[in-house]
Every structure is written in C-alpha cells, then in structure tokens.
C-alpha cells in the first residue's frame, strides 16, 4: 500500500493543477482548430500537442520539461531559446518564395512597409502598460505577424516572455482568415473590392538572381541586426533562383523546413507550462497581439487607398491587397484572394497580394533588426 501511495503521489493525477488542466484544454483546442478548421495545421498541431506534453505534471527530481537542463526537451527547446530555429525557417521560406510579383510592381513594397505600423503601435501600447523597453520591443514584433521573427527577437530582448510571445504570434497567424476579412470589408467599398489590377510584367531570370544579393546588401547596411533573418531568407532565395543549386533549394524548402517546423512548434508548445505561462503579463501580451494584428491589417488597407490618390486609373491598387502586408505567408495573400472573389469570382488578386506579403516578411525582419540594435545599443 505504501508503494501504491508513493506511486500515486508521483503521478500526474495527484500533481495536476487547475492551470495544467486549462493549458491541456487549450492544447486540445489548438489541435481541433488545426484538424477541423484547417487553421495553420503545420503550426497549430505541433504546438497544441506540445502544450499538452508540457503540462503533464511531474515531480521535481525528474528532469522532463523544457526548463530542466538535462532533459531531452531542454535540448530541443535550445533551438528556440537561443534563436537558432527562426533563421533556418527563413532559409526554407526564401527557397520557396518567388519575388517576381514584387519586382514587377515595386510600389507594392510600400504596402508591406505600411503594415509594419502594427509593430510600433504595439510597442507604444506595451510601454504604456508598464513593460520595459526591451519587453515592449519583443512584444511589438507580434504586429509583424511573423512567428519566427517574434521568437528570434524575444529570445534576444526578453527571453522570459518568449513562451507567451511565441504562442500569441502563431495563434494570430493561424487566425488570419478570421481576423482580417471583417477589417478589410469595413475599410473598403464594394467598388474598391471589385477593382481589377493589370497583369504583372514578366521578370527576367537575371533580375531575380540579382535581387537577393542587392536586397541583402541594402537591408544589411540599414539594419545589421536583421542579418541572421534577412541573410538566410535571401540566401535561400538565391539557392532557388540561381538554377545551379536545385538540390540545396529542394532540401531547404522541403525536408529541412519541415523538420525545423516540427521541432520549433512542439518545443514552443511544451514551454507553456502553467507555472510559467499563466501570468498577468501573458494576458496583456495576447491583448496587445490582437490589437497589433488589427492595426497592421488596417494600416496596409488604408495606405493602399492613400496611394491610389496619386496613381493613374490603370495603375491603381485594389485596397484589399494592402491587407497582405502583414507577413503571414501565404495565408494573408490567400485571404485577399478569398475576399476579392466573394465580390467578383473573376477577380484574381493572389499574385498581386504576394508582393506586399513577401515584402512584409523582409519588413518585419528589418524592424526586428532595428529594434534589437536600438534597444541593446
């Protein structure tokens, strides 16, 4: 009986708290959204299962969690806590990204820049709520709607907030189809939503090869802190566009990015142990994240409308495309296509939307580099 009692006292049933129970329910909700609603399943499913794993309680003498230095999960989470996984994700994204639409219509880059207003709005809001400048900078990057960038910057500026920031960033990325359409429709008219844009020009191969080199030099000089992210993104794109490293490009955009995504999502989820995650700060971070996402979407749409005031009729931009400036690739571009076709099934906006979408990825990485440089300088 003593052995049975000892066994039970060390089991998860005896150690389970209301916080663990709540987080396990959240993990199940994430898995359900991934499977039933198809909301970013490649992210939400690993994160959801990781949340469940991270909230199975265990006695302190057993090294099992991500915060126990000798555990397996600790070494997997090392890639998150030290900012190793995000640049590898960016390498894969670069190897699968086509910048042709952006190069064919460079003015759409401005929409990707405009959407970054969400980052700096959130930063100001975080400072107002009492967060330190470093914490506010890490929280603000959620407005870029870029999970890897949010993880990378928070690992440098505010490691103690990494769990909440990572979960908030990926949660809102998954909810793009829910959050963005109401804002897009509220800020546009029927006439604007059915607007058709002229077909993009054909971009020659030489221009696509030169772009990653030239863009990296410019971005690196402007914000050296963005080198790990922008450098890997544009290196991956060069592997794709060069035409001589197809094997490397295939590895980067397929097996490598899949492996890193699994490890990153699972370990981020496992880091949400109730004792570390359920805090007042986490609630504030989720609230600020929602605000930043809405502001970023609105900023892109409104800036497209502003640009149209100075453009000829044949060059005008469908304001819906501005919503793709948030760097949730390619989901926000798909949402633009979906909303546009609800108004006019013959209107194809996906390729146009990809331009500010990929520009937003670069923009959020540069913004992270600027914040890192300013706040630690």
Question: Which terms would index this structure?
Answer:
mainly alpha; single chain; 377 residues; globular
Molecular structure report:
It is globular and about 85 Å long. It has 21 helices and no strands. α6 runs antiparallel to α11 and α10 packs antiparallel against α21 (350-376). The chain has one domain. It has helices at residues 2-9, 12-15, 18-36, 41-54, 72-81, 85-96, 100-104, 109-114, 117-128, 133-140, 147-157, 162-174, 176-186, 190-193, 205-222, 227-242, 246-270, 274-277, 280-308, 331-343, 350-376. It is mainly alpha-helical and 377 residues long. The N and C termini lie far apart (61 Å).
Number of strands: 0
Residue-averaged pLDDT, rounded? Answer: 91
Number of helices: 21
Number of domains: 1
Q: Which word captures the global form?
A: globular
Fraction of residues in helix = over 70%
Order of helices and strands: HHHHHHHHHHHHHHHHHHHHH
CA radius of gyration: 21 Å
Query: Could you state the oligomeric state of the chains shown?
Result: single chain
User: Main beta sheet: strand number and arrangement?
Assistant: none
Structural class: mainly alpha
Straight-line N-to-C gap: 61 Å
What portion of residues belong to β-strands?
A: under 5%
User: Spans of 5+ residues with little confidence (pLDDT < 50)?
Assistant: none
């Amino acid at each position: 009986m003593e052995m049975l009692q000892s066994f039970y006292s060390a089991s998860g049933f005896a150690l389970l708290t209301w916080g663990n129970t709540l987080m396990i329910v959240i993990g199940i909700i994430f898995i359900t959204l991934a499977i039933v609603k198809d909301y970013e399943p490649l992210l939400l499913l690993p994160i959801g299962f990781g949340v469940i794993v991270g909230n199975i309680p265990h006695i302190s003498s057993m090294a099992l969690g991500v915060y126990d230095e000798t555990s397996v999960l600790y070494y997997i989470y090392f890639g998150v806590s030290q900012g190793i996984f995000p640049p590898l994700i960016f390498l894969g994204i670069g190897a699968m990204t086509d910048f042709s639409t952006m190069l064919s219509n460079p003015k759409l880059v401005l929409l990707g820049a405009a959407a970054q207003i969400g980052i700096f709005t959130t930063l100001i809001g975080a400072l107002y709520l009492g967060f330190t400048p470093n914490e506010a900078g890490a929280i603000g990057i959620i407005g870029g709607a870029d999970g890897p960038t949010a993880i990378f910057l928070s690992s440098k500026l505010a490691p103690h907030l990494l769990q909440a920031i990572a979960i908030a960033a990926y949660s809102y990325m998954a909810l793009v189809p829910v959050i963005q359409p109401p804002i897009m429709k509220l800020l546009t008219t029927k006439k604007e939503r059915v607007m058709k844009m002229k077909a993009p020009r054909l971009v020659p191969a030489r221009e696509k090869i030169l772009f990653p080199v030239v863009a990296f030099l410019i971005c690196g000089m402007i914000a050296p802190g963005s080198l790990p992210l922008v450098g890997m993104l544009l290196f991956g794109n060069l592997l794709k566009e060069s035409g001589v490293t197809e094997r490397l490009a295939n590895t980067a955009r397929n097996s490598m990015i899949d492996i890193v995504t699994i490890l990153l999502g699972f370990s981020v989820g496992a880091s949400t142990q109730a004792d570390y995650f359920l805090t007042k700060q986490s609630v504030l971070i989720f609230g600020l994240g929602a605000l930043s996402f809405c502001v970023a979407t609105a900023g892109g749409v409104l800036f497209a409308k502003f640009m149209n005031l100075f453009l000829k009729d044949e060059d005008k931009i469908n304001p819906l495309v501005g919503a793709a400036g948030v760097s949730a690739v390619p989901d926000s571009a798909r949402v633009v296509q979906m909303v546009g076709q609800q108004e006019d099934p013959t209107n194809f906006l996906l390729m146009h939307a990809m331009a500010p979408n990929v520009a937003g990825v670069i923009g959020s990485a540069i913004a992270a580099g600027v914040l890192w440089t300013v706040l630690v300088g």
